Fold this sequence. Notes:
The structure holds two protein chains of two kinds. By secondary structure, chain A is an all-beta fold. Chain A has strands spanning 5-7, 10-13, 19-24, 31-37, 44-50, 53-57, 65-68, 75-79, 88-95, 107-108, 112-116. In chain A, a hairpin with a 2-residue loop joins strand 5 and strand 6 (53-57). The mean pLDDT of chain A is 91. Chain B has strands at 4-7, 10-14, 19-25, 32-38, 45-51, 56-59, 62-67, 72-77, 86-93, 101-103, 107-112. The termini of chain B are far apart. The model of chain B has no long low-confidence stretch (mean pLDDT 93). The A-B interface holds A 4, 6, 31, 33, 35, 40-46, 48, 55-56, 58, 91, 102, 104-111 and B 4, 6, 32, 34, 36, 41-46, 49, 51, 89, 91, 93, 98-106.
Amino acid sequence: DTGVSQNPRHKITKRGQNVTFRCDPISEHNRLYWYRQTLGQGPEFLTYFQNEAQLEKSRLLSDRFSAERPKGSFSTLEIQRTEQGDSAMYLCASSSILSGGPRETQYFGPGTRLLVL
Amino acid sequence: GENVEQHPSTLSVQEGDSAVIKCTYSDSASNYFPWYKQELGKGPQLIIDIRSNVGEKKDQRIAVTLNKTAKHFSLHITETQPEDSAVYFCAAISGGGADGLTFGKGTHLIIQP
């Protein structure tokens, strides 16, 4: 399968713990995005990378959240001191500005569902 | 920033009938409008998209129309089938340089056999 992959698919943690999620984009896609989706809502943009550079952060991304893409391939999203309000599906998407296709076309992974107890 | 409104929140149609989902956006500089289908427990899957220089696009049973003046775009599904049952999201990218998609709240499409 050459689509976007995310691990783990599910995570249950206790309030106050740190969690880290991983996203592997479609091979050679140079843009990678993180979104958060709560029940009954559409995904909300958190941040994105072009290669290894983090180019934009939403105001939804509090200082407890940090994302990295050190080698311009996979990315990690860490949430420190988790709160019950962090419970959501965390989605990753990737796109390419180098291919002949439209640069905005974002392909999503299956998501990581986080439950904070 | 961009704001996307989507209606209806739930749509129930008989198998074989057509379904129409409508969205409006606020930022006149937005220039790219994708539609995603999301099944339970899965990530959103792109089904069709349209750019601001095109008024309509079709792909088999699915079509999207865009009215830039009214800042309105719609998804049309004809000859609906049970496998079309899912949540559908419209989205837009603001032309202000931000590359994150702004999504509507979704439409739960139910195909009645």
